[in-house]
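Forwarding the complex inputs:
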Amino acid sequence: MTPDDRTRRALSLFDELVDLDEATRAPILASLLREDSVLHAEVNALLAADSRDGMLERTMLSLLPASEHDDALPARIGPWRITGVAGRGGMGAVYLGERDDGQFEQRAAIKLIRLGMDTPQLRARFLRERQILAALVHPNIATLLDGGVTDTGAPYFAMERVTGQPLDVFCDGRKATLRERVTFFLQVCAAVQHAHQNLIVHRDLKPANILVGDDARVKLLDFGIAKLLDHDGPVDTTRERPHTPEYAAPEQLSGGTITTATDVYGLGVVLHRLLCGTAPDGASPSRAATRATDEQVQARGLASKEALAKSLAGDLSAIIQQCLEPEPSRRYTTVAALSQDLRAWLDGRPVTARAPTRGYVLTKFVARHRWGVAAGVLLVLAIGSGVAGVVWQAGKARRAAAEAQAQLEYLTSLLHILAPSTAEARELDRSRLIAEAARKARAELADKPESLAGVELALAQVAQNTGDSRQAIELADAAVALRRSVFGDDAIPTAKALLVAGAVRTQVKPPRYDEAAQAIDAAIAIARKQAPASALLVDGLQKRSTVFGDQDQLADQERVIGEAAALCDGALSAEVVCENVWDELGSIASRNRRSEQALVALRRAWEAKKKRLGTDHAETLEVAGQLAWAQAEAGDVAGGLVLAEEVHAANQRIYTQPTETSLRAMMRLSRLLKRSGQYERAEKLLDEYLAHSRRLFGENHQNTILGASDRASLLFGLGRFEESAAQFEATTKAYTVAKSDINAALTQGYRADAMREGGHAEQALPLQLGAIATLRTLYPKGENVMLARALSNLALTEGALGQHESALAHHDESLAMHARLKSTVPTVAYPRALRGKTLFDVGRSAEAEQELRAAVKDLLVMKAPSPNQYWEPFGLLTLVACANHATDCDALRAEAKKAQALTLAATARARLRQATAP
Amino acid sequence: MEDESLTQLLRDARDGDPAAGNRAYALIYRRLHTAARQQLRLRSERHATLTPTALVNEAWLKLSAAQYEIADREHYLAMASAAMRQIVVDAARARASGKRGGDAVHVTLNEEAGGDELDVGVLALEDALQRLEKLDARLAQVVQYRYFGGLTEDEIARLLGVTDRTVRRDWRKARAFLHAEIRGAS
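Prediction (whole assembly, two chains):
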């Protein structure tokens, strides 16, 4: 019977059987099963299909896709699968999209822009720029997840999908008072300020771009996109301009220079609308309020138009009007200054916008430059140099005010360079912009070294942020020199500059650790003298500790971080620098297997970062990842795994492109998966990690080496010893090149382990001896858990070669070291079990059995979280106990046999197999 | 584009003019394609749902002459069913090939299912239907008329020269076969 014949027969049997009841049908089917099981299966499948719904229950038209007209949804945009449309406008449409790589689903709002991006240069620039925008991470900014150009040349942006209402609608809906509205508006200011500090101007601020979610958190959309389009789009005057006329600053309409002041104007319009209910029309906000509708008045919780006008008159009016000055230089120079004034209004303090009319406690000089004073609070480029304080003390220190003034004026002009309007200037990249800014500063502030130093330091930080470490070093050094000459070698400002000069040196490739250490030590010395219990000293100590760590000077690292941690336990605990201290303390404790200490420190850092930055912030996630690891180290592998999965999922949600921290999270997750026996997913993640790391950092970067070394150890677990040894060998070489002696020695030892397990113990032995010799020089006091482990591994190799006596000696040394290190009971139990086996090998079989039984008992807690650590010694115990004719030999063997069904590392499985071999 | 009288073309086709048959089919295909697209747009805007039956009948009203014979109408229904089936399959194929790197702008689907899943489903259905044609041409014919053409059981019975009870039994067999087959394929 051909398959077709059989199906025909099945169809006719189906026809006969389908209307019969179950009882009549059953015997017929049963006999059919005996005659022809294939036919029986076919008939059964037909009967089953008859009783359930399927595709034909859908209307035929639902099988048709929507039409291919303009208003149709694209199936895909870039990597995004489009699931719906959120809205359409003149610029294009906003789609709802999802991205799914099998493990994680990410949802986005995707803006497809309706214009062509024709030249390759424009595309390249567009793609480069989106990376910078993607780095704009702030709780009040909808993160740019992805951006690109479709095959047809249309640019698109995928942004974090925010559900919420436009700020004005939201405020009206909840009848927010003016105070509440100002408070919400401050979140907008924070977002814009953050972007400005990253040299990104929004240029299209309007309520539609400002959403408030259910959590009452403001999210600003479309950052920097308007600017990209405006600069990069083809010349086409009929094209709709990205900004909205009602909210556009005069310079936008006239084609003038766009600066951060343009956003200040946009903020002014938004604030005007938020408070008065209408767009500005040239009249003062308080006058505009008299034209408000009753509805608008009520939505602000006020009784009458007059009451609204009265509330707005004075400070709020002045603030809005200063934002809306037609001449950019007369507006608030920074958003920080605007925020400061709004906060002053909230607190009932004087606002700077009204300085000329209110007889403020400012000198005439400052009053004449009132916009400059307002700008003085935080400054355009996030200068943390104390200038703000200097300005506020202006009445007392006229000279300082003058210096600050000069600096502010300079920074204003700087903005014009950073947001250039000419075609030639647009070609300048950020490094050149910074260099140009520095050149200009040095020419114009030559007679004002204090100001110049502040500018240089600020620029150094900007350069560092944009990845230009060389320029950052040059600028920081110049600032140090200037401050030395102005403030003296022993002054706090000099110390601050030294810290920057030190920190940037650790970021350059290759790092200049010695120079960094020198600069930071100098800063610490100043801090000890001038400010012995200050955040500055903590900052210095923490930075020094990092450098010690980078240079493998671990004891010094601990000493220094310990001092910083002690300071953070006291009055300084709220300082941001303490987060870094706890983080580092946690890492060090983790590395030294002091898991309780690690947990405490990391949890503290995590809580602080969560509070300050939010759960999904990159820094918070990084600490959460470390915490996950520490948790696993402390014995709670399952709990650690859960947290690590959460961190990984959050990263996948937040970043389209992996970052260094998201990759670290991926690696930690892979390690935890490996530890819990999920080798397959661990390997998959690790391969993914390596691919990204090679692409992002290159083959010989430490992140890539680390991944390669993890892969080698995974291969070891899988029993692919040859491959593992080869990969470890490559890793050792890479570490040697990178001058990381500890890692080179450790991986050399692991390579030896792989060789031993692969049956080449005699080649392994010299490698292991060499590795241990290196470790002994690196840990002169001989007290380190890595060294203890290496000794225990050396003993295994000696055992494999029949050198049981020296194996025993090395086991003893290892255990003694563990004892001195106060390693936890389960940590010691494993090497203790290995020693037990060696006792057996030297003929002390009763003692061996006793040791093994004790060790296995101690390891019982590891059975679930780290099964390999339990079952390998269990295998050894079974072997020894049965050789000793123990009464429970059969029971042990049965259990060992059963355990072979588990997912275990190759070595653990091998021990279990040996134990159960007949 | 639609000046040619469908009724006349159908008669010419029945009189043995294969070119007229092809033209009639093309005319019906185009008309139904347009109508389906309009319908889908309406659906997304107003959530209106038109049945295939209404669609096919509407197109007939647009295409046919005022005076027609029953044979013309039956001929049309057969062709319209085939055309609808073709339209659905063509759309799914276009999307599926687009996903392999064709045009960037593609149509998407209704809200009920994921796109890939839908395309796979339509193409699997078509494969199953072709196999059914080989096994039992009448069963496949019933599916085409009823599912794609939206024809009533009476209309199908008349077209196929069988009783409507047979149409019902055929449908049940065909339906079970297709669902079983699609499930087996995926």
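Chain A has a mean pLDDT of 79.
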